[in-house]
Design a protein that fits this description.
Elements lengths: L2 H12 L5 E7 L3 H15 L5 E7 L3 E7 L1 H7 L3 H9 L7 H14 L7 H4 L4 H9 L7 E2 L3 E2 L3 H23 L4 H4 L4
Antiparallel strand pairs: 1-3, 2-3, 4-5
């Protein structure tokens, strides 16, 4: 998994604009992949970023790249806590919630739609999606928008610009380590 892929998929998180990203990659050698994850975490711990493989399949792995401090801040929201509590999470501890999310992904037959809360999506949009993935959608971008379309469009544009800036800088020789901000 190279830096170009991470820049394409996670620039807003590396820039400190977004709590986290979730993406899937193909793997051939699980031990080699796990070594890459350990190296990533060693490399970016000082920047406040963590990578966790949250679900393995035979040839793929679902990866969560996030900023634990931002997740903790997001989980301080009362409405977020209420949703997490209803879904059976230990909402007072963000690290424990991540561990519980991994269990939900492994054990539940349904995909845990509260995952949007782990990615920094607005709680109203996560709740809208949980109610109905089709009804009431005002716009579809990085996530499905059910509440404040204008704010979401601004956020989507910020994420897109960030990714373009990171891609260009990396193509001009700036390393991902240099591009990653400390939050």
């Amino acid at each position: 998994m190279g830096d170009q892929l991470l820049i394409r998929l996670c620039s807003p998180t590396f820039a400190g604009l977004k709590t986290g990203n979730l993406f899937s990659v193909d793997i051939k050698d699980r031990e080699k992949f796990n070594a890459e994850v350990r190296e990533f975490n060693r490399r970016f711990a000082c920047k406040g970023i963590r990578m966790i493989p949250v679900k393995y399949s035979k040839k793929h792995v679902l990866i969560y790249v996030y900023r634990p401090k931002m997740l903790k801040r997001d989980f301080a929201n009362e409405e977020v806590c209420r949703v997490l509590k209803e879904k059976g999470y230990s909402y007072s501890n963000a690290d424990r919630c991540v561990a519980q999310l991994v269990k939900h992904l492994e054990q539940d037959s349904d995909f845990p739609h509260e995952i949007g809360l782990f990615l920094g999506y607005p709680v109203d949009d996560v709740l809208g999606f949980m109610r109905s993935s089709r009804e009431g959608v005002k716009y579809t971008g990085v996530w499905k928008v059910y509440s404040n379309k204008d704010a979401a469009l601004e956020t989507f544009d910020r994420y897109k610009r960030c990714t373009e800036i990171y891609k260009k800088a990396h193509n001009n020789g700036v390393s991902l380590d240099e591009l990653t901000v400390v939050c």
